[in-house]
Amino acid sequence: PLWCESVTGDVATPTQIIAACASGVGCAAGFWRERTRRDLQLKRIEKELNAESLTVRIPVNAAISTARPTARLKDLKSKRRIVAIRGSKEQLSGQVWNLLSMLRRRLAQSQTLVVIVPTDASEKEDWGWDANQMSNSLWLADPLDVDMWIEYFDELLDSSDDKKSSDELCWFALNFKGRSIASGAGEPPKLLELLGQQLQPMDLLDET
């Protein structure tokens, strides 16, 4: 209004003043939304880049070879999808492990590697793994440098808006491009929903 008056000599009316203020508020709100969106995008990209350095031991068909190669998540781009779950023995056994076991063929079909990161040095036998039933677990990768994995999960929890406890079960999922497609804390991943929407099958299952 002052600029209008000093340049044109016209005195701004109350309606013009209100319109100018509303326009300014709208522009400021739009700027703030765009800034927030970009900040979230940059944080997501940073988390994805940090995840690239995490390493795993790749499962192989025991009938062909017993040597299991290691790889960074960065090296698995375009090759495997990733679902990583961190928790204690009590959190990983029962519902989580039973669901993973039930969906193991579907996970292999979608070329998804599940990485289970224990916080208490527990092992897959403690969660319910049966060597006789799942001798070739081509969907289950072992985390290398578990402390580094745990530290990464702690960073994810610290950066979340609701500040989840570091003792909670937490997880994240990456697609073939290494981009985050889902994550959560406090409850197991919704694998059926993920498999139906984000982790669609890439290979046909045999008929047996």
Structural overview:
This protein is of the alpha/beta class. Helix content is 42%, strand content 17%. The mean pLDDT is 81. It has a 7-stranded mixed sheet. The longest helix is centred in the N-terminal third of the chain and has 38 residues.
Classify the secondary structure makeup into a structural class. alpha/beta
Strand-residue proportion: 15-25%
Report the C-alpha radius of gyration, rounded.
25 Å
How many helical stretches? 8
How would you sum up this structure in a few lines?
The chain is an alpha/beta fold.
Keywords:
208 residues; 7-stranded mixed sheet; elongated; alpha/beta; single chain
Which helices and strands, and how do they pair?
Blueprint: H1 2-8, H2 14-51, E1 55-57, E2 70-72, E3 81-87, H3 89-92, H4 95-102, H5 104-109, E4 112-118, H6 124-127, E5 140-144, H7 146-159, E6 170-174, E7 180-185, H8 191-197
Parallel strand pairs: 3-4, 4-5
Antiparallel strand pairs: 1-2, 1-5, 3-6, 6-7
